[in-house]
TrEMBL record:
Domain Cdc23 residues, every copy: 7-279
Record protein name field: Cdc23 domain-containing protein
GO terms, biological process: anaphase-promoting complex-dependent catabolic process; cell division; positive regulation of mitotic metaphase/anaphase transition; protein ubiquitination
The keyword Phosphoprotein appears for this protein: no
Superkingdom of the organism of origin: Eukaryota
TPR repeat locations: 374-407, 408-441
Organism: Kingdonia uniflora
């Protein structure tokens, strides 16, 4: 059990002690957590209240119902109490120590160590050793620049390590070393590669003095596996929860990390550090929307914060938020442009703009400021990959791996670089390392699958396994399912390919995506279902393909025609073997109908423009079979002037006696055209109209009566992209009104304006004249005239509607072959 007041008192003492030993990073961290503890309203100062009011919005957004919002102690966990560290009381030593500390603050490290050369107090011994260590690190960086440049590799080492290790080891054996000495001793052992002993020493440091966050950070670096982490013998202090949250995150145990931080928010309710760590975990889980919200709130509360803002820039880069990333880069540049994080943010901005050379300049500048800045090495490697400079990319990624062997992004980058150099086995090696470190990232599995598919390998079975793992890891790029379908198709496994194509279609529909992958899936499934006699499913996929423009539309039409012929009970399906009998004398009239334009049509637009097309059919009032067919959806071009008043200028031609519906003729005004394609309902030339009339109970003498009941029907439709096209009006013109009109029967024809049923008008031009050469298709007499009678007998044997549908199917097939 621990109370908020107890945490507050411990942190206040720790801040003074850490600052007194020049451990400023740990002191700053402790101060941020101190202010993050909710203050008692009776004791709160105005500035403290203002800070906590700003941080409360993050707390409300990410709080859980079980979190405790009062100032009562946190129960359920038993924490140990650590005694406060005792300070040296010698006044003379204190005066010398203050002088040495002043030198240290001015970065005169050797001068500070010299001032403390005769001091034997634990505090003075630590500061002298720490000053010597930093002096050696400073000289090491200078020699690196002199020998190899700021980014080059060298064998330069810190020359003070040997002396310091011997001294601190002796102090440890004598028992004259304190927790801060253990911390410095652990750093030196880590530098020399003695990681096991370094872990033991650092555990002693944090158990004796748990408020030094720098010691916890060094210990976290040495916990490379979950087993090592679990084997640590740590006291159950509340600082251990901060350490475990950070360690779980480094080990990619993001759910455990989030659980720890959400628990800690019960005490440190207004801390900005905890939301930043939650954002890091969610960034690894690719929950970019939540990460962006958290960082926006953090910047609103702490507008001059630079820590972790490079991760925020990575999120904006991934989301391609140009304006937000530009604003962040400008803001950081004005705040502190010579920080590694600032240079990385500016580098990301130039990378997003495609200026990769300039981006590399800023990443190199970040590395000059901090040669161990991991993110800069990795991002610079990405830029070299974009620039097709594989050797430079490999060098940058290897430097990143040297700094942190658990950085999966660097291993992944090495795989990309070697794949670019056509070295697939090396690439696979590095991809496997990245997948081992981050097994839930679908991008890594997809990259490894691509490598297996490479021409030099063609290990398709292994590629399929990788794509399956990617599909199970929430493949947001929607690559895995499509590639699985294609690979199974390539291997001749049609059933498996159909399964993954269906899954891919479901995913695209849920995400409301369209594209070539959708067309490919629909086309394969339509063909596959027809091959395996699943005609209903095939018809569904074909009908969906009719909504697309391109060769897939014609393929779908061909499949539909083929299925219609196969379902027909007619004895012979080869309609080319049915020769026509001589044309009747009535087949010598041609009715031309030009749909010119519309005016003030009913407005059904969803957005700023409506695309209208017309379907013109000829119907008989006593028999509405012609109107029962569903017209093919038109594909009009955008009319730049038309909204409710479109312009078409499109001509239909009807061989009246044959009831042949045919769309033909060039477009006269393509720039202002609302193009449309009507349903082509064709009567085969080898069956005369009288034969059809006889089947449906009409004789030759009553033909004129039927003619008087025939009507031209103009159906106006508005094209919709994501649903069925909408009907916006209809115009009916009796055929006899046109046939007996002298103007229509003239050589020039007549233009008429008629009202549409739902409002508005439509302008049409009509002409009825004798057929000219070329108006009708020429047919060669055949030898199988007897089959004509066979067709008539078959039509009579079927119900009227079925006979008509089968009749239309055969006609479509003949029209397609004639084309």
């Amino acid at each position: 059990m621990i109370s908020k007041e107890s945490c507050r008192n411990e942190l206040r003492t720790a801040i003074r002690q850490l600052s007194d030993r020049c451990l400023y990073s740990a002191s700053r961290w402790a101060a941020e957590q101190l202010v993050g503890i909710e203050q008692d309203p009776a004791k709160a100062t105005p500035s403290h209240t203002r800070f906590q009011r700003g941080s409360s919005s993050i707390r409300r957004r990410f709080s859980t119902p079980n979190e405790i919002n009062t100032s009562t102690p946190i129960t359920g966990v038993s924490y140990v109490m650590t005694p406060v560290h005792r300070e040296d009381d010698n006044v003379d030593d204190c005066d010398v120590y203050m002088l040495a500390k002043a030198y240290f603050d001015c970065k005169e490290f050797r001068r500070a160590a010299h001032a403390l050369r005769d001091q034997n107090g634990r505090k003075a011994v630590f500061l002298r050793s720490y000053a010597l260590y930093l002096a050696g690190e400073k000289r090491k960086e200078e020699e690196m620049i002199e020998l190899e440049g700021p980014l080059g590799k060298s064998d330069v080492i810190n020359r003070e390590l040997v002396t310091l290790e011997a001294q601190l080891s002796k102090n440890r054996k004598n028992g004259t070393i304190d927790s801060f000495g253990f911390y410095l001793y652990g750093i030196i052992l880590k530098e020399k590669g003695r990681e096991d002993l370094a872990r033991t020493v650092l555990v002693e440091s944090v158990n004796n003095y748990p408020w030094n966050w720098s010691a916890w950070s060094e210990l976290q670096y040495l916990c490379t596996t979950a087993d090592i982490l679990n084997d640590l013998n740590l006291k159950n202090h509340w600082m251990k929860d901060f350490f475990l949250g950070s360690a779980y995150q480094e080990l990619r145990m993001h759910n455990e990390s989030l659980s720890k931080y959400q628990y800690l928010q019960g005490i440190f309710r207004f801390s900005n550090y905890i939301p930043a760590q939650i954002a890091k975990a969610q960034y690894s889980l690719r929950e970019f929307e939540e990460v962006e919200v958290i960082f926006e709130e953090i910047l609103r509360n702490d507008p001059y914060r630079v820590e972790d803002m490079d991760m925020y820039s990575n999120v904006l880069y991934a989301k391609e938020c140009f304006s937000a990333l530009s604003h962040l880069a400008h803001r950081i540049f004005l705040n502190d442009k010579y920080r590694p994080e600032s240079c990385c943010i500016i580098g990301n901005y130039y990378s997003l703009k495609g200026l990769h050379e300039k981006s590399v300049i800023y990443f190199r500048r970040a590395l000059k400021l901090n040669s161990k800045y991991l993110s800069a090495w990795t991002l610079m490697g990405h830029e070299y990959v974009e620039m097709k400079n594989a050797p430079a990319a490999v060098d940058a990624y290897r430097r990143a791996v040297d700094i942190n062997p658990r950085d999966y992004r660097a291993w992944y980058g090495l795989g990309q670089a070697y794949e670019m150099m056509l070295m697939p086995f090396y690439a696979l090696h590095y991809f496997k390392k990245s997948v081992y470190l981050q097994p839930n990232d679908s991008r890594l599995w997809i990259a490894m699958a691509h490598c297996y598919e490479a021409e030099h390998l063609r290990m398709l079975e292994d590629a399929i396994k990788c794509y399956k793992r990617a599909a199970n890891c929430n493949d947001r790029e929607a690559i895995a399912l499509h590639r699985l379908a294609k690979l199974h198709k390539e291997l001749g496994r049609d059933e498996e390919a159909a399964f993954y194509y269906k899954k891919d279609i479901e995913k695209m529909e849920n995400e409301e995506r369209e594209g070539p992958n959708m067309v490919e899936a629909l086309l394969f499934l339509a063909t596959h279902c027809r091959t395996y006699n699943m005609l209903k499913e095939s018809k569904v996929y074909c009908n969906r393909l009719l909504d697309y423009n391109g060769p897939e539309r014609e393929t779908a039409k061909s499949i539909l025609r083929g299925m219609g012929i196969e379902q027909s009970p007619f004895p012979s399906r080869d309609v080319d073997h049915f020769p026509p009998e001589d044309f009747d004398s009535n087949i010598n009239k041609l009715l031309a109908v030009k749909v010119i334009s519309g005016h003030d049509l009913t407005n059904v637009r969803t957005f700023n423009r409506m695309k209208v097309y017309a379907i013109v059919i000829m119907s008989n009032n006593s028999d509405t079979r012609w109107g029962s067919e569903n017209p093919t959806r038109g594909t009009p071009e955008a009319d730049i002037t038309g909204s409710t008043s479109p312009t078409w200028n499109y001509t239909f031609k009807f061989n009246h006696s044959d009831s042949e519906f045919e769309s033909s003729g060039p477009f006269e005004d393509s720039s202002l055209l609302e193009k449309f394609t009507p349903k082509q309902i064709l009567t085969p030339s080898y069956v005369s109209p009288r034969d059809v009339l006889e089947v449906y109970g009409a004789d030759k003498e009553n033909g004129s009566d039927i003619q008087r009941n025939e009507t031209l029907i103009f159906n106006l439709m508005c094209q919709c992209s994501y649903k069925l096209d909408r009907h916006i009006g209809q115009l009916n013109i009796p055929l006899w009104e046109l046939l007996y009109n002298p103007e229509v029967n003239s050589s020039t024809g007549q233009t008429l304006e008629r009202d549409v049923s739902t409002g508005g008008k439509i302008n049409c031009w009509f002409r009825y004249r004798d057929a000219q050469p070329g108006d009708e298709e020429e047919y060669v007499d055949g030898e199988a005239r007897g089959k004509r009678q066979q067709l008539k007998e078959w039509l009579k044997s079927l119900p009227a509607v079925n006979a008509f549908d089968s009749f239309i199917t055969i006609v479509k097939e003949k029209a397609h072959r004639a084309e």
